[in-house]
Amino acid sequence: MKNERIESISTLEKIRDDVRASSPENGKAGEDEAILLCAGGGCIASGAYAFKEALQNALNAHGLADQVTIIETGCLGPCAQGPVCVMGRDKTYYQGLQPADAEELVTSHLKGNQIVERLTWQGEGEKPVPVLSDIEFFKRQTKVVLRNCGRIVPTSLEDYIAHDGYAALAKALTSMTPEQVIDEVRISGLRGRGGAGFPTHTKWTFTRNSADPQKYILCNADEGDPGAYMDRSVLEGDPHSIIEGMALGAYAIGSSKGYVYVRAEYPLAIERLQIAIDAARDAGLLGERIFGTDFSFDVEIRMGSGAFVCGEETALINSIEGKRGEPRPRPPFPAVKGLWQKPSCLNNVETFANIPAIIHRGGAWYAGMGTEKSKGTKVFALAGAINVSGLVEVPIGAKLREIIYDIGGGIKDGGTFKAAQ
Questions:
Q1: This prediction's pTM
Q2: 355 and 382 in contact (C-beta within 8 Å)?
């Protein structure tokens, strides 16, 4: 679909259906196979690209290069087990992959239909658990924010569209008013995932009701908490979800311009986000008259220099303006006077990633998860003295014990749980 502009829902749906029909993940013509290789930051650091090169060489040597596609995805979750991959058709999960394992994976699994058990997840009593859906780490999660991470090529607009990408934006622009979008977010019960837990629909309403016609929507990707890499993984693994979420927010509040504030220490996230922005702009999903409507919106990236204080919204706004990153006195709040003294609405990466799913599937669907006062899911970065560290997403209200013991596999070396930050 290179250079093809998407100006109608029918064009979007045709691209979606065409990509789904030809996807090697589904076994094109019942023969082809896809290997979903995690290319998140953690697996890259563990040697994912060296394994990929060895795997491609093995496929070439055995004459399988035309039947097997290696798909680089975002973070699959169990970062400490990397590099990891999943076979597209039978969903066999392999971990701790080294270049020397590539030959056996090709000859045993792809040619001999035999699972390489030593590379699979090891369950209780070292019993292999090869299928992704049977592994406790995965099956106890509920993925909304991370719905596409580990499933799509992060930089592929077509892949995102094939997984219902931009369907929510098309729905909102062609059949919903801005007030209806905000109301759907209200029904969902979504609260800001940046820490304060402020109701998202309330912040959007405040900004929409500000009189100034020039408004800005801002995404806080300045993730500075120790051990945290939730936002980074979403930007690396599913950048289009942030673009779509911001566009939906912009439509709701009456904004035509957005900024994503990313810390410069996230070069891979910045690179993939910029590729996604350029692709969306080329396809007409950013820019003037999106889907042939009167709505116009565009996004730019602004990089921060690592100051922890710039995670605070007014310090972030100062930094975008080129000023010292320090908090402003409030009131006035950003919804009244924010970026360049114009009404501005700021949410974090995880909040925006929820929005397309909420608009596409409905606020009531989202409100069916979580607790009475806090709906939906929450992404956590598990790290420390735990057997299975990595990225997880669970419904709000999940017990700490479940996260640490059932998903994280418990304390290392049979130790006793003492504290969690």
A1: 0.94
A2: no
Q: What angle do CA 190, 194, 198 make, to 5 degrees?
A: 45
Helix axes 349-361 and 230-237, enclosed angle (nearest 10): 60
Question: Which tokens is 165 given?
Answer: 């990408």
Of 46-55, 57-66, 210-219, 227-236, which range is least confident? 227-236
* Residue in 338, 174, 145 with CA at minimum distance from that of residue 238: 145
Q: Among candidates 385, 388, 414, which has minimal Cα distance to 403?
A: 388
E strands in 39-84: 68-73
State residue 30's pLDDT score. 43
Based on the number of CB atoms within 10 Å of its own CB, is 128 exposed (0-12), middle (13-18) or buried (19 or more)? middle
What is the C-alpha to C-alpha distance for residues 269 and 115, in angstroms, rounded to an integer?
Answer: 33
- Cα–Cα distance measured from residue 20 to residue 26, given in angstroms and rounded to the nearest whole number: 8
Sign of CA dihedral 373, 398, 347, 252: negative
Written in H, E and C, the secondary structure of 8-39 is CHHHHHHHHHHHHHHCHHHCHHHCCEEEEEEC
For the ranges 56-65, 180-189, 323-332, 347-356, the lowest mean pLDDT is seen at 323-332
